[in-house]
């Protein structure tokens, strides 16, 4: 028997005896697809370094599997950091709205809120700005839920009329969606 044949026979015996145990170890530490890859990589290392594999190969194989898993986790972490950095750069590189457009939208939004009665404005702001539910907003406003619903309904109708005008800002449309 040649050296290559004896190496192949030894490797085959190691794989047949310990392949499932290496996979089980990898599976306990990862999902099935990654466990398959880790098992394959572990036995690739075993084949390449067959001369270094001790007579009791399981601990050695599990160390290789553990190191392979650690390498995989580091790769995933690097990719995630890179993805986050790229997302941050995209946000920084994204065109920002023109200052005059923002000022005009805010001005129109403030005019729309000023067109509401004080009670309607409070109702809109409690729901849209403070993020309260209608029930909680009614408590803050010191009225029944029914009264609050009427205030909010009237405010929405008034804002609807304002949004029908040609100068309705995007913020006003967003506000209408939030109080719906």
Radius of gyration: 33 Å
The number of helical segments is 8
Q: Ranges with pLDDT <50 over ≥5 residues?
A: none
Helices and strands: which structural class? mainly alpha
Give the class-level CATH name of the largest domain.
Mainly Alpha
CATH superfamily of the largest domain: RNA polymerase sigma factor, region 2, helix turn helix motif
User: Into how many domains do the coordinates divide?
Assistant: 2
Order of helices and strands: HHHHHHHH
* Approximate helicity band: over 70%
Biggest beta sheet summary = none
Which geometry do the CA atoms define? elongated
CA distance, first residue to last residue: 82 Å
The CATH architecture assignment of the largest domain turns out to be: Orthogonal Bundle
CATH topology of the largest domain: Rna Polymerase Sigma Factor, Chain: A
Q: Averaging pLDDT over every residue, what do you get?
A: 86
Domain RNA polymerase sigma factor 70 region 4 type: 108-159
Family: Belongs to the sigma-70 factor family. ECF subfamily.
Domain RNA polymerase sigma-70 region: 14-78
Organism: Jatrophihabitans cynanchi
């Amino acid at each position: 028997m040649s050296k290559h044949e004896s190496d192949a026979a030894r490797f085959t015996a190691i794989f047949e005896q310990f392949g499932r145990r290496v996979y089980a170890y990898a599976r306990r530490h990862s999902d099935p697809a990654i466990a398959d890859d880790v098992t394959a990589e572990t036995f690739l290392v075993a084949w390449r370094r067959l001369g270094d594999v001790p007579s009791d190969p399981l601990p050695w194989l599990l160390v290789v599997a553990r190191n392979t898993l650690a390498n995989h986790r580091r790769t995933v972490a690097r990719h995630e950091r890179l993805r986050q950095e790229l997302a941050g750069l995209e946000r920084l590189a994204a065109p920002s709205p023109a200052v005059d457009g923002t000022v005009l939208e805010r001005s129109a939004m403030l005019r729309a809120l000023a067109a509401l009665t004080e009670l309607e404005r409070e109702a809109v702001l409690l729901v849209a700005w403070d993020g309260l539910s209608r029930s909680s907003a009614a408590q803050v406003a010191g009225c029944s839920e029914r009264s609050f619903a009427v205030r909010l309904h009237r405010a929405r109708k008034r804002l609807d009329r304002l949004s029908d005008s040609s100068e309705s800002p995007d913020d006003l449309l967003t506000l209408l969606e939030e109080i719906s």
